[in-house]
Write a structure and sequence with these properties.
By secondary structure, this protein is an alpha+beta fold. Helices cover 20% and strands 28% of the residues. It has one domain (20-126): Roll (Pdz3 Domain), CATH 2.30.42.10. Strands 1, 2, 3, 4, 5, 6 and 7 form a seven-stranded mixed β-sheet that branches. The longest helix is centred in the N-terminal third of the chain and has 10 residues, at 22-31. The radius of gyration is 20 Å and the shape is globular. The termini are far apart. The relative contact order is 0.18.
Protein backbone atom coordinates (compact mmCIF):
# COMPACT_ATOMS: atom_id res chain seq x y z
CA UNK A 1 0.00 0.00 0.00
CA UNK A 2 1.13 3.49 -0.78
CA UNK A 3 1.27 6.02 1.97
CA UNK A 4 -0.59 9.27 1.38
CA UNK A 5 1.57 11.00 3.96
CA UNK A 6 3.48 13.97 2.55
CA UNK A 7 6.55 15.20 4.41
CA UNK A 8 6.35 18.78 5.65
CA UNK A 9 8.73 21.31 4.09
CA UNK A 10 12.12 21.57 5.76
CA UNK A 11 11.94 25.34 5.71
CA UNK A 12 9.71 28.06 4.38
CA UNK A 13 11.18 30.63 2.05
CA UNK A 14 9.39 33.93 1.65
CA UNK A 15 9.70 35.76 -1.63
CA UNK A 16 12.04 38.73 -1.38
CA UNK A 17 10.58 42.20 -1.03
CA UNK A 18 10.57 44.27 -4.19
CA UNK A 19 9.25 47.53 -2.71
CA UNK A 20 8.19 49.21 0.52
CA UNK A 21 4.83 50.83 1.16
CA UNK A 22 5.06 54.51 2.11
CA UNK A 23 2.37 54.22 4.80
CA UNK A 24 4.31 51.41 6.51
CA UNK A 25 7.58 53.38 6.33
CA UNK A 26 5.93 56.51 7.79
CA UNK A 27 4.35 54.44 10.59
CA UNK A 28 7.73 52.90 11.41
CA UNK A 29 9.46 56.29 11.50
CA UNK A 30 6.71 57.81 13.65
CA UNK A 31 7.14 54.99 16.21
CA UNK A 32 10.70 56.25 16.67
CA UNK A 33 14.30 55.25 16.10
CA UNK A 34 14.62 53.38 19.45
CA UNK A 35 11.64 51.21 18.47
CA UNK A 36 13.38 50.28 15.21
CA UNK A 37 16.65 49.50 16.99
CA UNK A 38 14.84 46.94 19.19
CA UNK A 39 14.22 44.87 16.05
CA UNK A 40 17.92 44.18 15.44
CA UNK A 41 21.12 43.87 17.51
CA UNK A 42 24.06 45.76 16.00
CA UNK A 43 27.65 46.59 16.91
CA UNK A 44 30.26 48.91 15.44
CA UNK A 45 32.64 47.24 13.00
CA UNK A 46 36.16 48.45 12.31
CA UNK A 47 37.34 45.75 9.95
CA UNK A 48 39.58 43.14 11.48
CA UNK A 49 40.41 45.23 14.51
CA UNK A 50 38.43 46.23 17.57
CA UNK A 51 36.78 49.66 17.32
CA UNK A 52 38.76 52.12 19.41
CA UNK A 53 39.23 55.89 19.19
CA UNK A 54 41.18 56.58 16.01
CA UNK A 55 40.36 53.26 14.33
CA UNK A 56 38.68 53.23 10.90
CA UNK A 57 34.91 52.76 11.22
CA UNK A 58 33.62 50.27 8.65
CA UNK A 59 29.90 50.15 9.44
CA UNK A 60 27.31 48.56 11.73
CA UNK A 61 27.46 44.75 11.93
CA UNK A 62 24.13 43.02 12.31
CA UNK A 63 24.72 40.68 15.24
CA UNK A 64 21.21 39.25 15.49
CA UNK A 65 17.81 39.92 14.00
CA UNK A 66 15.42 40.19 16.94
CA UNK A 67 12.23 40.59 14.87
CA UNK A 68 12.53 37.98 12.12
CA UNK A 69 9.05 38.73 10.72
CA UNK A 70 9.96 42.41 10.26
CA UNK A 71 13.09 41.56 8.25
CA UNK A 72 11.52 38.67 6.29
CA UNK A 73 12.22 38.98 2.57
CA UNK A 74 14.70 41.85 2.98
CA UNK A 75 17.78 39.78 2.17
CA UNK A 76 20.18 41.17 4.77
CA UNK A 77 20.85 39.64 8.15
CA UNK A 78 23.29 38.55 10.82
CA UNK A 79 26.91 39.05 9.82
CA UNK A 80 26.20 41.75 7.23
CA UNK A 81 27.84 45.14 7.87
CA UNK A 82 25.70 48.16 6.91
CA UNK A 83 27.98 50.94 5.65
CA UNK A 84 25.64 53.59 4.16
CA UNK A 85 21.92 54.23 3.79
CA UNK A 86 20.55 56.31 0.94
CA UNK A 87 24.12 57.33 0.06
CA UNK A 88 24.59 58.86 3.54
CA UNK A 89 27.10 57.99 6.23
CA UNK A 90 25.63 56.45 9.38
CA UNK A 91 28.80 56.45 11.48
CA UNK A 92 27.42 58.78 14.17
CA UNK A 93 24.09 58.36 15.91
CA UNK A 94 22.97 61.79 14.69
CA UNK A 95 23.66 60.74 11.08
CA UNK A 96 21.76 57.47 11.47
CA UNK A 97 18.83 59.31 13.07
CA UNK A 98 18.71 61.90 10.25
CA UNK A 99 18.71 59.15 7.59
CA UNK A 100 15.95 57.31 9.48
CA UNK A 101 13.76 60.43 9.70
CA UNK A 102 14.32 61.24 6.00
CA UNK A 103 12.78 57.89 5.02
CA UNK A 104 9.30 59.44 5.44
CA UNK A 105 9.75 61.31 2.16
CA UNK A 106 12.60 59.37 0.49
CA UNK A 107 11.80 57.85 -2.93
CA UNK A 108 13.68 54.66 -2.06
CA UNK A 109 15.66 52.78 0.56
CA UNK A 110 19.21 52.02 -0.59
CA UNK A 111 21.35 50.04 1.84
CA UNK A 112 25.03 49.56 1.09
CA UNK A 113 26.56 46.71 3.09
CA UNK A 114 29.39 44.22 3.22
CA UNK A 115 28.81 40.49 3.15
CA UNK A 116 31.96 38.49 3.71
CA UNK A 117 33.98 41.60 2.86
CA UNK A 118 32.22 41.94 -0.51
CA UNK A 119 30.27 45.19 -1.21
CA UNK A 120 26.55 44.61 -1.73
CA UNK A 121 23.54 46.88 -2.25
CA UNK A 122 19.86 46.50 -1.45
CA UNK A 123 17.59 48.94 -3.26
CA UNK A 124 13.84 49.12 -2.64
CA UNK A 125 11.51 51.81 -4.00
CA UNK A 126 9.14 53.34 -1.46
CA UNK A 127 5.76 53.53 -3.16
CA UNK A 128 2.46 55.19 -2.40
CA UNK A 129 1.42 58.42 -0.80
CA UNK A 130 1.74 59.13 2.89
CA UNK A 131 -1.62 59.90 4.40
CA UNK A 132 -1.49 62.93 6.67
CA UNK A 133 -2.69 62.26 10.21
CA UNK A 134 -4.31 65.70 10.29
CA UNK A 135 -5.70 67.01 7.00
CA UNK A 136 -4.40 70.39 5.94
CA UNK A 137 -6.86 73.24 6.48
CA UNK A 138 -8.16 74.97 3.40
CA UNK A 139 -7.66 78.71 3.11
CA UNK A 140 -10.87 80.61 3.83
CA UNK A 141 -12.68 82.06 0.81
CA UNK A 142 -12.72 85.80 0.33
CA UNK A 143 -9.49 86.40 2.26
CA UNK A 144 -11.15 86.03 5.69
Amino acid sequence: MESSHVAPPIENIQAPLTQLERTEVVTLVEKGFPNFLRKVSIEASCGRQECRPGSQFEGWRIVQVEDKAFFAGVGIGAGDIVTRINEKSIERDTQAYAVFMALKSAPRLDIEYLRGGRPMRLSLPIVGEAKDAVPAKKAPKGGK
